[in-house]
Design a protein that fits this description.
By secondary structure, this protein is mainly α. Helix content is about 50%, strand content about 0%.
Amino acid sequence: MRTTIKLDDDVHEFAAYYARVRGLTLGAAIDELIRKAQAAPAPLPPKIEHSANGLPLLPRTGGVITSEMVKKLSEEELESETFI
């Protein structure tokens, strides 16, 4: 099927590179990439852990949430409320 699509520049660059490396046309490369995405297994839902007192815990990502991060998000939230 022939159709026209608009791609973001970075997506077009990736698809064109993928096509060039694999020796495919751009259309064939996009077909292949979409088929790979369709065949990929669905992500598993996150396992929700609970603390000893029964409260749900955030997933363990190895990252640390600092008080500065919380303060910045709170300030951003307060600023956005003034425009509502």
